[in-house]
Amino acid sequence: MKVNIDMGAAPAGAKAMLDLEELLATRLLVQGNSGSGKSHLLRRLLEQSAQWVQQCVIDPEGDFVTLADKYGHVVVDGARTEHELTRIAARIRQHRVSVVLDLEGLDVEQQMRCAAAFLGGLFDAERDYWYPMLVVVDEAQLFAPAVAGEVSDEARKLSLGAMTNLMCRGRKRGLAGVIATQRLAKLAKNVAAEASNFLMGRTFLDIDMARASDLLGMERRQAEQFRDLARGHFVALGPALSRRPLAVTIGPAETSARSSSPKLTPLPQPGEDTHDLIFTPAPEERRAIVRRAPPPPAPTPTPTVDILNQLSQAKVMTQVETSAPTLFPEIDQAERNSLIDAVMHEMLTDPDASFRSDAVLYQDFLVRCRIRRVPGDALALPDFRRRLAVARAGIDGETAQSEPWQQALELSKTLPDDVQGVFFIVAQAAVTHSPCPSDATLARAYGTHSTRRARRLLTYFEEQGLIVVRTDFTGNRIVAFPDLACETTAGDPNGPDEGGQEQYAAE
């Protein structure tokens, strides 16, 4: 069925019509600087096509939630877990409901993760539910950036992969991507290249004008016209719009965004009471004023006998309180520690675990703890790093209780978190009188493939006075710990990584 929707006015008094069925097969890219009218264009497109096709809007600023009042879109709050968003997206495709994913209030990395999970749920829906859907992504450069920014590589890969699936493979699943961006140079090329329809608005930078003219098949000298376009004026090209570049003026929209362009309003006339207006609190503010507590009195010397009496009373009160029955069951710390250790070893059986950042492993650890129902509060990130480093050392239970190992734990507190794992592996070899680990083993513990970095860490430990490194006549390495009164046996520094993940699997 052929459906043409009215996007506005074309030259010579004609209407700018958009073939909706063709758009579903060929996708659309909208580009224009801030204030050029991109959001208004998307709103016009959504309003005109709302009765014909299911819609989904990825809305990073919360501008499109007003569609719910007039057109019945369901607003999905992005402040959910990724699993929830994936399941919601699957049900949306099943029941053919138009939605707006509101990501307002989330930081950029959270927005990217939420959008990736939601788009993944739409993409992975069962074949029976592959109904046509218009997927509109505003500010697409946030979700498909051309270069890495301040967000983590994992979040960028997830979001970019979801956007690539939408634009490259979404057509067969009924998903038609409509992406809008402020700058083509900020948008990943493999995402932008999949669109066959273009609406180019006002832009000023030479690189963006050059890319816009190339996409529209125009000569470079014609690219200057993009600087002169007024708000709401675009140049259209594509099988769903026009076979030749066509100037289009977007028509009015029935709904409006919650935010709008700033409007100038007259300033109030200055008066004599201006000073009082600024520095005199209003009545409701007076009630909210929080008084600062007076400074504590200077401490007076307390006799030693009084201090001892206070400490003894506190000890008696503590014993009484602990003996009283509690409403909540007490946590068995031994059981909790065993569950945490089990989660640690389960994580480290992954061959790629050694080369993932601590932040990524920490998120994986929290999820696994919830699955295993580990009681008590979650470990803080510094505590997690320390326990992870100990787990990577692979120390057995009997050795862990020995005095040299306890001294090694105390020595490690003087080191940065990221090198403690290497220190523990070498200390474990010394305490158990095992061969000195190879450079490859130390590199894995440090999360790198560079053996040179591993050797530099040993030099760093030696400079701190923690170890003494020497080499025997055969070229094997021995590391001694003066504070622990023990040392490793001779080990080949150029040997293979013999610990690896098999050690954790065996445990």
From TrEMBL:
The keyword Nucleotide-binding belongs to this UniProt entry's keyword annotation: yes
GO molecular function, one term: ATP binding
Keyword annotations of the record: ATP-binding, Nucleotide-binding
Region listing for Disordered, in residue ranges: 251-273, 487-507
Pfam families: DUF87 (PF01935)
Helicase HerA central domain segment(s): 14-76
UniProt xrefs under InterPro entries: ATPase_Atu1862_pred, HerA-like, HerA_central, P-loop_NTPase
The name this protein goes by in its record: ATP-binding protein
The organism of origin for this protein: Phyllobacterium brassicacearum
